[in-house]
Amino acid sequence: MAQQTASIDHEHPSYLGHHYDTMEQQHGANTLGMWAFLVTEVLLFGGMFAAYFMYRAIYPQAFIEGSHHNNLVLGSINTIVLLLSSFLVALGVRSTQVGNRRLLMLCLAGTIVLGAVFLGIKGAEYYDHYLSGQVPGVLFEYEGTTPGIAKQVELFLVLYFTMTATHALHMIIGMAIMGFLLYKAWQGRYGTEYFTPVELGGLYWHFVDLIWVLLFPMLYLISRHG
Amino acid sequence: MRHAHDAHEPITPVRTLALTLVTLIILTLATITFAFMNLGPLNDLAALGIALTKVGLIVMIFMGVRFSDNITRLFVVIGWLWALMLIAGILVDVLTRGWQLFRP
C-alpha cells in the first residue's frame, strides 16, 4: 500500500520536502521561518539596546567619556569590513541563482576571511582595553574627570563588552555556517534549481552585519566633537 | 530581469549590489564626519537616521525583503517594533522621573 502511494506520488526532486507542493511554497515557508528566528534575535539584542539607552539617559557624561576610550579607527575599519562581507554574501546568493558555483565558493571563502579579520581587530581592541585597565569587574583602573564617574564608565564598559561579545559570538556562528555552505557548494549541492540554504545562511550573516551597523554609532560615535 | 528557479524571484543585478555597498560605505563615512561636528541635539538624530537608513538598505536589498511576500514583511517589521516599544517604554519612565507634577 505504501509502495503504491509512493508510485502514484508526483515526482519530487530530492531537495523538495514531501509536505510541500512546489519549490516556491517551500522557499516561502523557509524564508518566513528564518525571519521568525531572526525576530527572536532582534529581541535578544533589543533587550541589551534597551539597557544601554536607559543607562545612557541616566549617565550621559559617563557614556561620552567611556565611548571616547574606544578606538574609532579600528571600529570604522571593522564596520567597512563587515559591509564588504555582506556584499560578498549577497553576491554569493546571486552567483548561485545564475549557476556560477565557482564565484559562490569564492564569495563564501571571502566572507569567512573578512569575518576572521573582523574578529582579529576586535580581539586587538579587547587587548588594548585589558592593557589600559578597562575590563569592568576584573581589572578596572580609571581616574574620572569628576568624582563618582568611574563607576558609571565601568557600567558603560559592561554594556560595551556584553554587546560586542554577543555580537562576536554571532560572527563565529556565522563563519561556521559559511564554512558549512562552502563545503556543500564544493560538493555541488546548490545551483539554479536549489539555493535556499545559501539564502538563509546569508540572511543570518546580514543580520549580524546590521546589528554591528547599530552598535558602531552607539559605542564609538557619541559626541566625538566634545 | 532574469528569474531563478527556486522561488521564481528576480535576481538582483551585480550593479545594484555594488551601488548598495558604495552607499553603505558613504553613509558610514558621513556618520563618522557628523560625530565630529557639534550639531547639538541633531548629532543623535543624524546618527540614528543614518544607522536606520543603512539597516533599511541591508534589509531591503542585501536580504531581499523587497521581493518577499507580505507575511514575511510583517515579521520583519514587527520584531523591530517590539524592540522599539521596549526601549520607548523604558525611556518614558527614566526621562520623566525628575518631573514634579504633583507638589504637596
Summarize the structure in words.
- The complex is a heterodimer of chains A (226) and B (104).
- In chain A, a hairpin with a 3-residue loop joins strand 1 (134-135) and strand 2.
- Chain A has helices spanning 2-8, 23-58, 60-67, 72-97, 101-131, 149-186, 196-220, and strands at residues 134-135, 139-140.
- Chain A has a two-stranded antiparallel sheet.
- Chain A is built from seven helices and two strands, in the order αααααββαα.
- Chain A has a single domain (22-220), classed as Up-down Bundle (Four Helix Bundle (Hemerythrin (Met), subunit A)).
- With 226 residues, chain A is an all-alpha fold.
- By secondary structure, chain B is mostly helical.
- Chain B has one domain (14-95).
- In chain B, 66% of the residues lie in helices and 0% in strands.
- Chain B contains three helices and no strands.
- Chain B has helices at 14-35, 42-62, 70-95.
- In chain B, helix 1 runs antiparallel to helix 2 (42-62).
- Chain B is flat and about 65 Å long.
- Classes of the chains: A mainly alpha (226), B mainly alpha (104).
- Chains A and B meet through helix 2, helix 4 and helix 7 of A and helix 1, helix 2 and helix 3 of B.
